[in-house]
């Protein structure tokens, strides 16, 4: 029950300048683990994807995975880094049961990639984020604490360890400190992780799913008063979505400002972000810094990537997401503002794929930024998780263009698709939602409407064409909306000799 | 029929191949010998009689089918307990691994099996290969067959004693600072440390990863060379394994056996003669051997290796540093001993109690030393500095090998010492490896071959060669053997 009154965000960033930094861990999508031949795919009964090497059994030795090294170099190149011509793995020593050897094979003062940058766009402004290093290491296993109320080790009666994840290749990407972000710090942090995710996805090196932990982010935040030295930083972990990155920075700025305003000092510590409350809670204190006793890993030979190989990898890099977006914007004929709303909605790739599946850019954009964005927003989920695929959206639009669905029916069909009832065509047929295009049935409905509304019919015959709307409405009602209004109208005018 | 346990590996293999004797008979003869004398020697921690007989029968079956047999098929071999053997207990001489049965074979053991050798069992050693006397084995020391009141050397005292006591014609050892060569010297047997990376470390329970090297132990140089060829060669599972063909050590040993060393230059390291040096009896035997080699045509050249004097301190920073990390995995969580898990104690307490109960005093001493040497603020002064010394020692070797073909020295400064005489002062124990450690820091090969007796106890002669020129030292060793002969210990019977 905290009694401190938190300042509002605007007040916090008016009084203090935030400096942020991000450490991102990416699980690579290689077929095998970093130092052994065990498969890496997700799932599997606990401790079934293990061998003497990844269990760290006495005598077992690591052998570095070339595909992981290649992926790391490609990441480094995409982030404009220099690639080391010679570097080594190092042992990071600390005791923890989810680490089979009680040391992690990582890299220390000789990372594979150093000194790069990534440009991100925020609020129409380009911000260059410096990249300190990109290095390769092995993931740990997972510990499950059973019997405690919190799921934490304290109070647990039993701890179970699953080593299936132990030894999965993990790339750590560390930014340089980002000063001068001001009030935009939370958005810059989010934009950075988003851009990084898009780059990694474009490289095809990881499935980059934050929810499943294949992309994990730690956010460092410190505050200082203008003109003063940078403050003590905290490291916030457990940031599991893009939205959380932004929220974590924002809440940490507010919290630190409150502490500093009340004359307190910031403790260098690890904090945990809570999705539920949106704030950070203290974790392990780093006041007594762990001494990891790093030293070069003697079981592995140094890495010396052939410069020619590195150049080949550089030449084969895919187009950067920024460049790609620019090209799409031109192809789609969008203004900067329109494009930004597409980007902010996380719809670039979805629209691109919908267009690839046959829809026009305008139609694809209409669906993704309209009906589907509304649904995602309502459900509080990412647009890509809304439940309709680009191919389905394209198919839906084809049905509209072919006159089989009108807009209103199409929305109903889309609901069925989202509900998992099948493809748009399948939903349309199963629910009997197709536009009534059989002129025989339609003519009968029109005649019925004319017969039922003689007064209106007379007005139309007299040339008051606008009055036909009432008849159209009547026909639509009897056909339960499954008729094309334009066709109905034409038919009515034809029957009444008014055209 | 003569006593099968007195034969060389070469003779055993030939008799089996000729059909004079079956592999099973050879194996049973050795198992009988073990049953008869190992109560006195205690060379073995585990005898795998069933596995050995099955392996021998398999060789006999292959011979009966007319399959071609390898040069060591059917020959029994003892394996140091630091190498994993599938489903056969492997303890590394430690309580912390008591009862552990590895689910996999080390590469060396796999190659022994593929070659049709018969693995008799696992031999005693100082805990985690840290020691020079086997007094630090958690299962009690091995006694030197030359004098049961004296140490058999270490860490691989069990392998050397097993050979000296005719319990096995061949054995596997591992050498981190002299653990094959020094036991060889004090038991009057041949012990060879190949080039680092020449033999695979996969399945070798690590003491010091950048130094550990498996190698052969035998009663003759040719037997050692044959075992060397079987166990050596590139292994993709060990990243530090050298992807080159095995040096022609058997051919070199055969050439040396002709007794001609014309044109071979032997380097005598000036600095080895100064400082603490070797005891007089050892020096006398060594000098006699030098004279014998000169008669065979070798030339003696004095060379300087100014940084060898720093080898011992550098080694006692590098090896403990690596061991402090390598031994971190023994925490009671996954395998081996677990102490104090009563449902109330925390994980940290259980880890701590397990390690306290499971490790012996020398292992703890080195873990603490290494933890300190790697800690932040001390790294540069200790580990970093030791690595620089290592580079300088390598330079010394390279410069020396520009002038000479091999370097020679006594293997160890003193003959087998009585139990308990050096355990109270670690430094006195560490001196046993004074002459062997430089080679480990450099990564080159070294061999110890018997060269005579001092007060009735064996003295070893060490020959060191450039990396991947293991054949050179075998040639000189075989020549020396042809000149001075092999040594026979007193009988253990009666
Ligand atoms: Zn594995």
TrEMBL record, chain A:
It catalyses: L-glutamyl-tRNA(Gln) + L-glutamine + ATP + H2O = L-glutaminyl-tRNA(Gln) + L-glutamate + ADP + phosphate + H(+); L-aspartyl-tRNA(Asn) + L-glutamine + ATP + H2O = L-asparaginyl-tRNA(Asn) + L-glutamate + ADP + phosphate + 2 H(+). Signal peptide: none annotated. Pfam families: GatB_N (PF02934), GatB_Yqey (PF02637). Residues 349-496 form the Asn/Gln amidotransferase domain. SUPFAM superfamilies: GatB/YqeY motif, Glutamine synthetase/guanido kinase. Heterotrimer of A, B and C subunits. This is Aspartyl/glutamyl-tRNA(Asn/Gln) amidotransferase subunit B.
